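Notebook, bench 3.
Goal today: get a predicted structure for EGFL6 protein from Indicator maculatus so we can plan the truncation constructs. The sequence was checked against the plasmid map this morning, with no discrepancies at the termini. Length recorded as 149 residues. Pasting the sequence as submitted so the record is complete.
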Amino acid sequence: PVDCSFSRGVCDWKQDTDDDFDWNPADRDRGDGYYMAVPGFVGHKEDMGRLKLLLTELKPKTSYCLIFSYRLAGERVGKLRVFLTNEKHAPVWEQDRGKDERWRTGKIEIFQGGETTNSITFESERGKGKTGEIGVDNVILISGRCPED
């Protein structure tokens, strides 16, 4: 597996420069490294912040599974979406406010067809709320189908 967690820095993460705000590192509760977060008060309603994971060397005609931790804390904090390069128009994954503020696991199957996916974008959309945050952590890419829970 390729570990793209933010504390290790083996992967190529880029802030999108055409968006409205940046994602920022936030310290983990237990103090072991950090995650990337967008606080609820940043920007205006419906502003977007995009964090891109650039992928190289994915083999064509192969399945991959992207596994990540995410948290949507706070009422009306907004939405978290994931886009693959070639499908800019529609997110492959989307989540708004969670039932609670716990970290959860997201999984996305990526099939490399003739066109290869060369980036994965985590997009945060600002909601109406003034508190809370959207967080992403522990991003891992494994080859093969996503494991069942």
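The mean pLDDT is 88. Residues 46 and 134 are 14 Å apart (CA to CA).
Flagging this for group meeting.
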